[in-house]
Structures are given as C-alpha cells and as structure tokens.
Amino acid sequence: MTEVIGVDRMSSRAGLDRLLLTGGVLAGPVWVTVALVQGLTRESFDFRRHPVSVLSTGELGWLQISSFVVAGLLCVGAAAALRRVEHPGLGRRAGPWLVGQYGVGLVLAGVFVADPLDGFPAGTPAGPGEVSWHGLAHFGAGAVAFSALIGACLVAGRRYVRQGERGWAAYSIATGCFFALAWLALIGSGGHPIAMIGFAVAVVAGWAWVSLTLNRAG
Questions:
Q1: Under DSSP, is residue 117 helix (H, G, I), strand (E, B) or coil?
Q2: Is the pLDDT of residue 93 over 80?
Q3: What is the pTM of this model?
C-alpha cells in the first residue's frame, strides 16, 4: 500500500513538473505576441524609437504589465520543475536558478512600470523625458532578467560542449553572446534606431531559446 501511494505521489509530481515546464515553453510566445500586437496597433508607438517596456504606460498599459508578470511567473514555475527534472543543458543547480532569476526580473519589470518616453503614449513630449523611481527600478529589473538569461545561455552552452552536443552548444552560446552585444549596443548608442531594432530581435531570439531549451526537459 505504501509503495502504491509513493508511486502515485511521484506520478502526480511528474505531471505537475510537465505542466510547469509547458508553461515555461509558452511564456515566450505569449510575451512576444502581446508585445508585437500592441506595438503594431497602439497609437504613436514605434519599435525604432521605443522599447517594449513603455507599452506598460497609458490606458492599455495593464496588458504589457500583465504580460511581464505572467511570463515571469511561468519561468519561475519552470525553474522549480527543473530542480527535479534532469535536463541535458540546464542541470539542476545553476541553470534552474538562472531561469528563476530571469522570471523574477520579468515580474519586477511588470511591477515597476517604465516611464513614458519620446511621444509615447500619445501626447507625451518628444525626448527622453524624466526618469522616476519606478522607472529606475524597472531598468534594474531588466538588468536582473537580462543578465540571468545571458548566464543561462552560457551555462547551457558549456554543459552541451562537455556532452558533445555541438549544435546545441553553438546555439546557446551564440544566443547569449548576441543578446549581450545587442544590450550593450542599445546602452552605448543611447537608443539609436538600429540598436533598438537589434535589441528587439535579440529579445525574440532569447525567448525562442528559452522555449526550445525548456522543451527538451525530461
């Protein structure tokens, strides 16, 4: 009887872990879809001038705020599952911790809303505008999330190298390096249109890596 109960508990936990990992796989597509639809439909928004974060402002800002929080919580849930599920690249220590840190950063980016910027939302004066305390906190949350994502890519890349999975190793390392370079270019250029577009592409690439990598769990 005890063995049966133990098997049932293990089966239930395995089912929960699969559910949490599926949530992590879906986090990226949901986040990207919400950002893309808003970016293409909300008045005055321009991907060449505005980071996705400013979509958190204005009357419909709750949509992007919710997207940050939901995607972050899904990543935290996936990180919890990864501590119990063997993963070829992320392992059960550094990888899950970094994925969880990425999720926490996203949640905080939703809680601490970015400031209006350069004509968005409609009616906002042109130019960089003033930075509030919650705007600074939003930048800090982004730094937490971005550094964790880069770290997760590089940690996975190193593990894949050791396992002889050259394709996944190259993909993981390339994604991490591309994201880091795009982030630095954005900061260094002060928001140049090319850097803005490059970073937007890097964000999509980063989410794609998260989804594809989590899909390999188990």
A1: strand
A2: yes
A3: 0.91
